[in-house]
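Problem: given the chain below (277 residues), write out its structure.
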Amino acid sequence: MLNQRMLDKIICNALEEDVFRGDLTSEMTIPEENMSRAIIKVKAPGIICGLEVVKRVFEIVDPSIVFIQVIEEGGQVEVGDIAAKLEGNTKSLLTGERTALNFLQRMSGIATLTRLFCDKTKGTKARIVDTRKTAPGLRLLDKYAVVCGGGTNHRYCLADGILIKDNHIKAAGGIKDALKAVKGKVPHTLKIEIETSTLSEVREAIEEGADIIMLDNMTVDEMKEAVRLINGKAIVEASGNVSIENVNQIAFAGVDVISIGALTHSVEAMDISMKIE
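Solution.
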């Protein structure tokens, strides 16, 4: 379920960007009293996500618009499927069209890509998770779409956990010093994760009692050895250069989590249109 206050803020910002000086074309071509029906039509296969957002966009534009959801959120769609139907003032429908579709296309693209990664790792214990590499201002929707596609969320924000990365390690003076500094301050409710890029760093992280050890840009063989060394003493996360082509091999290396920035940072939007009937 999306946080309503945060969702409305995102939508209002998007509408302000697009409609802050009005919809000149609709205002000049369509009579005020004109009413229409419209359909939202899928033009590519994948996972539909964001229909709740579309509904809310039109509620904010014009509360009198009737939104009828046809396909279940997170459902598989094919070319030609009708995802939703709308009825109401024609000018209002056209004013909200692009904003609604922008959200729906991006979110469906994320959900579709996430599902592809999840399907590639079936039969393993590895979970597919996102990162904070989201579009600025759209993190709520990007991460919702990952879950809709079958994935899991990593940290939502910097306060959601301790993740000691390479720059923190350098600034702190090394893995040992970084972990010792954190352990003296962190509450017991937060796990401590640290990034490693070599097997020697993995050994050091194990010795210092990290809760989660990230294997950054390691080869599959290195990951297998790291999993053997860790031997259940910490959660193992693989990260860096993960693709559809290699994710299955990474999963079978025995890692617990595979974090993929590409789920959200460069996703291809699904082709979806709205047509007035």
